Amino acid sequence: MPGTEPRTAERRAHADYTGGVYGSMLAASVVVGAGTLGPFPRLELVLLLLLTGLVFWIAHVHALLFGERLARRRPDRQAVLHVCREEWPIVKAAVPPAAAVAVSPLLGLGLQGAVWFALAVAVAGQVGWSAAAARRAGATWRLMAVSASVNLVLGLVIVSCKLWLKR
Hints:
By secondary structure, the chain is mostly helical.
């Protein structure tokens, strides 16, 4: 239907950025909450980041399909695939922090350095996704800065939790 194309594109852009911001915040929280890791801490943290992103993606897909759509009509294969694609940025946002942990030995970082590096990457992703969302929505530069700043503050709250938990 030609009249629905802009609305669909608008929803897709919104879902991409929302999922990216949410997924980045989720990844930062996972890094903070990882606590004690076992004999292969880097591998465990990489897997924890990716699997948590995957589980939350599945939860979002389930909630959208069965919470919203089931009330109106039974979801078909096309609807399922559409929602899966819309929510995929939640998983994608976990990849950069996981990659940061994976490459941290190449940068000469110890385990704590790897954790802080992953946390910084996750917060940077959160800020970047929010600024990109504001730009895509046609926001002014000032509003983009406000959006990025709010997400930076949220990221710093997560960093503060990490510092507090470390005491």
